[in-house]
Structure formats: structure tokens, C-alpha cells
Amino acid sequence: MEKLSGADMLIRALQDEGVEYVFGYPGGAVLHIYDALFNQEKIKHILVRHEQGATHMADGYARATGRTGVVLVTSGPGATNAITGIATAYMDSIPMVVISGQVQSHLIGTDSFQETDMIGVSRPVVKHSFLVKEASDIPKIIKKAFFIAASGRPGPVVVDVPKDKTNPNDLFEYKYPKSVFLRSYTPYEKGHPGQIKKAVELLLSAEKPMIYSGGGVILGDSSNALTVLTRELGFPITNTLMGLGGFPGTDHQFLGMLGMHGTYEANNAMHHCDVLLAVGARFDDRITNTPSMFCPNAKIIHIDVDPASISKTIRADIPIVGDVGAILKEMTDVIRTKTSKKSDKTSICEWWDQIALWREKDCLKINRTSSEDQIIKPQDGVRAVYEVTRGEAFVTSDVGQHQMFAALYYPFDEPRRWINSGGLGTMGFGLPAAMGVQLAFPESTVVCITGEGSIQMNIQELSTCSQYQLPIKIINLNNQSLGMVKQWQDMQYEGRHSHSYMDSLPDFVALAESYGHRGFKIQSRSDLEPALEEVFSIKDKLVFVDIMVDPKEHVYPMLVAPNGSMRDMWLEKGVRT
Amino acid sequence: MRRIVSVLLENESGSLSRLIGLFAQRGYNIETLTVAPTEDPTLSRLTLTTLAGDDEIEQITKQVNKLVEVVKLVDLSEGDHVERELMLIKVKTNSDQREEVKRIADIFRGQIVDVFRDAYTIQLTGTSEKIDAFIKALPRDSIAEVARSGVLGLSRGEKALSI
């Protein structure tokens, strides 16, 4: 049998796992591993400029492809810099394997140079972690790490590797396990047939039904099954921020996003429904508003792969644990056998009439006074990007107002096209995530919708973009302030804008050009579409588009909190339901 | 309500800190905790008591079950069970209290496991309530130190927490 060092086994295991890209940054504790990487060509290494960037790139790659993202960082600061990205992946259940170097085993616990207890520091934000104790265990540990990261409810897994375990002089027999069994971890469950039957009966008896689906549908590659079921039922559907694209965003049955900045019709339909089918969603506080006032008249069916998500914040009447796609298919099959009940679809006509009335409110219309004709509203920016890309781009975002505008004004007809940090809300996510997506899909249009606050949190990666020639289109909705913070200060702190301005901004066009990219600045509304047409016709270069937008704009609708239900919304400045 | 949760977990380094960390991270409390390897040295059995309502204990058991190294878990307080706690207690005894302390220990079926000129060390097993009652029965200011094991428990009948 072939004999390899720990470092070579690690790289070979990644190859055998089918890893295409590793996002990383070298340092003392991982030098042996980097040497092993140097001697092969199967795995491409992307040298980032900051370890946080590496984790977001792996994350973006994973979200767009469904495959596990891989990160390689050194001990100490390399490892701690990766934490924000690991936490981001954890909150959104993204499959990721992070390999961190560790100081030599005999130095662990002595406060040695670049030593951090990575297992300890990362513990609350990983699905699982491994410390390599014997070099010969490396293939087995890597196999387990990938299995745990991608199965069940996915998440990040850390593998901490002390430097001495990768010593090139210590050789071991290499064999990559074909399969893995963990007696304490059985991630797949089949949905209970009795529960499925009960759920179907409840759904067919509904007069005001509503479907609410989340990121679990995307992660479980179940959007097709969801779409088939939703069409079969003829029910209205809404998606969470993480679930956008799970059902076609331009379809008539789609009521838009729900929650804190959800549409008037989606939030109202949630509040008034009598049967709620929740699929791969976790009743997050940004959805429910005040939990005791949530869906006061609804019986709730909740499908999720993670039993801990069920009845965590909102009690489910019919819980169904298991693989979301398989359960949705089974429900569709059961419904189709009940052909006689199909006529029940007509019984929800009144409900659709009610929804049509809510839709008439046109809650996403862009209000503009006559003097504002040439002012670009952030919504205009997103709509123009949608038009120019014909809704077909991969769109990543950072966090803040621009994120909500992107989610509301760029409907997605397909899953894995909308990529954002929903759970943790990590500013600085957008650009590196877009890089991971672009590497996975080199021929596709990849847009990063961001703001001048967020983009500066990982702007160093513009350098990485030059190195690997990633033709991302960065849409910087520049309102010269931390817009979402400012909006809250306007609404809750009498307009005291405590440190929410953005002073001393760089000349983004010049900055982009200094890295060898192209830069555009757009300041008036009539220039918007022609300029964007030009931007998106540039296929071989990264283009940084600095769009000067109305700094006074707020994101609406917005749920009234605290002590509000989902039907209580601000619809525009000073106007509420 | 006080709950007794018994957990079988992989006897690996780090698995205990993951479980304890989960309690801290999610704001659950731990009243008592005891852990040791089982007859199968690859498994540890951990028993903890916590104060939790019905909704909270449901979340606790689900979240603990989710940990990769947790093999099995049972909320013993859901059904009939036996529980025991062990206490070692050092009691200061001046000459007029010496007889009284010995008598109280006998009443509670405690054993004196160490004797010194002016102190006894007493071993007592029983439910936590019994141990609390014993402590209350001792003469005021006589307790030098107390070490309690935390609660151990098994369900009644044939059912067993095993793999």
C-alpha cells in the first residue's frame, strides 16, 4: 500500500473527496500542507487577502453549487479570522470544511506562538469539529468531516491539525474510506406517513391556506418538489429571505418575501391564514414578529430535517421531520390519489380575492416627488440590474438596506441564485461570496449588490479578483451612510444619526482601477440603464459600479415592533397599517 | 420543574465540553452533573439535573440529541425511575454534640467513614431531598465541608438506556 505523510494524506483525501477549490492563506502551522498542495494540480488553491474572505468564498461556492466549500488557514490569527465566516455558514446551515493548522502537539496549552484553542473558539459556531491526534487518522477524519458537513441539516466542520501531524518524514499507509458510519449520528429520517396523511387532510380542508418556505428548500434541492406541490394545491406561497428562488419569484402564486421587510400581501396572508404549511423554515424572529401574536387562527404543519427546529419558537400542530424534498413528493402523491377532493381548490377563491385586494396596495411602488426625477432611489438601482440581467444573474449581497432592496426588487425564478447572509447578517459577505460563485460558474453573470459600508469590510479581496481574473459586477448602492442603522435611528431615535454616516469615502472608481478593474460612477437616473447595459456588456473584467442613491430612502414595508403582529406594518414614512 | 436527563455519549476528548458549552450557549441551567465511562469504555454516561418547563426541556433534549457525539438520551423524570445522590460531609463535633450527630447519622442510615477528635466524616446516599433533610437536621454551624456527587438515575423496569 502507498505510504504518505500526514500533509500528503490530507491533500489526497481532499482530492478523493472531489474537492475543486480550496480557499486559503498560508502560515507557519500549515507549511507542510502547503508544500503538499504545491506538488499537485488537481485542487486549485485560491489565495485570499484575509481569512474571513476565504470562508465567505467557500460559502458562496457552496450556496451556488450545493457542494461543500473548503477552507485552509493557519493557526492562531488565521483561525480566529475565519470565525466570522464559519459563524455565517453555521447560521445559514451551509456545508463547509475548515482545515486549520495548529501548533505542534507538545506545544498545545503552553501559550506558544500563534496558538489558539480553535476547537474551543469555534465550538458554538460549528456543526462539529475534530482535533487530529494521530496522523494516521487523517483520511478517516476528512471523510467524516465531509459527511457531517453535507448531511442532514448541513453546517461547517472544523478540522484542527497540529503541525507535527503533517510532518513530511512520518509516512503512513493511505487508504480513503469508501463510506462512513457514525453510531451517534443518523441524519436522514423518512417523513412519517401518518403525519403526511394528516397534513394533507388539513391542507385540503383549508379555506385560507398559506405556504411559507425557507432556506431548507434550497439546501435540500427541493424547489422542484415544492413548486409541483404548490401548483397542485393552487395555494399562495411566500419565501423567507433565505428561501427566495425556492418557488419562482415571478409566478402569480408567489406573494413575495415575508417578515420584517416582507410584502404587504405576504405578511397579511400569513396573519390571516387558517392553515400554514411551513417548509424548511425556522420561524425566526425576523419572520414572526411577536410570537404570541403570530398567525392567531392557523393550524401549523411544519416540515424540517432538523427536529430541534420544530416547535422551537412556534408550536407546530403537525410536525413532520425528514428530508424536505421526499416529504413534499409524498404529499403530492397523496393529494393526487384524492382526485375527488381536487374541486376544493375552488373553495379558496374568496381567499385569492382577499389577496388580490392586498396586492392592490402595490407596497413596492417607488414613491418619487416631481423634484426627484433624476434622483436614483436604491430600488431603481436594483430594478435596473434586474432588467439588464433579465433576472438571470447570480446575485450576492451584503447586509443592510441594499440587501432588503435586492431581495424585494430582484425576483428569483431559480434556487441558488440569491446568495446572502441571512442568519448572522454579516457585512463584508457579498464580494467574497460572489468570488466563490464566479469560480464555480465562470461563464455566468455574477452580481454583488452592496453598499459603501459593507463593501469596505472585505474590500481587500479586489486584489484576489485581479489575481484570478474574476469578472464580477459590483453594484455599490452608495447612500453615504449605514442606511439600515440610520433608518432605525430615524424611526426610533428621533433622527439622531449616531455614527451612521460614512465619511472619508474613497473614490471607488479610482480604487477599482488601481487594482486593474474597471470603475463606473452613476449619478442620475437617466444614465442608469444605459450605463448598466455597458457595464454588463464587459465580460472579461470586474466592474465596480458606484451608484449615488437617495440617502433619505427607507426600506418598506417594515413590521411594527415591539408588540406587533405580522399585519402591523409601516408602509412608508409616517404611514402604518 | 426539576428534570433528570441521562445521556450516553462517545467517550472522546471534547465531547463533554461540547455538551456543557451547549447549555451555556443556549441559556439552559445545570443544577447537578455527573459523568463517568460505562461498562463499555467507548461510551460515557452523563446525568444532569436542570430546571426547565415542558417547552424548554423539549428543546434541551432535541439540542443535546443533535450533538454529533451524543448516542442516546432520556429524560428520566418523564417516567418512573430511581435516583440517588451520594454525599460526603465533614461535621465538627464538640463533646456534647458527638452523640447527637451519630444518632442523626443512624436515623438517616448514614455511615461514619472517618473519625477525628472533634469531627466525623459521614457518607450518605439517597434522593437529593433526603440529603437536604439530613443537612438541615445537623446542629447549627457544625458543617465543616460538603461534597455531593450530583444525581444519578435509572428508569424502573426492563427498559435501559443502551445501544
Describe the 3D structure.
The complex is a heterodimer of chains A (577) and B (163). Chain A has a 6-stranded parallel beta sheet, sandwiched between helices. In chain A, strands 11-10-9-12-13-14 form a 6-stranded parallel beta sheet, with helices on both faces. Chain A has a 6-stranded parallel beta sheet with strand order 16-15-17-18-20-19, with helices on both faces. Chain A is an alpha/beta fold. Helix content of chain A is 35%, strand content 18%. The relative contact order of chain A is 0.11. In chain A, helix 15 crosses helix 16 and helix 15 packs parallel to helix 21. Chain B is of the alpha+beta class and 163 residues long. Chain B is built from 4 helices and 8 strands, in the order βαββαββαββαβ. The longest helix of chain B has 13 residues, at 54-66. The mean pLDDT of chain B is 95. The chains are: A alpha/beta (577), B alpha+beta (163).
Task: For the structure shown, list the relevant keywords.
heterodimer; A: 577 residues; alpha/beta; six-stranded parallel β-sheet; 21 helices; B: 163 residues; alpha+beta; four-stranded antiparallel β-sheet; 4 helices; elongated
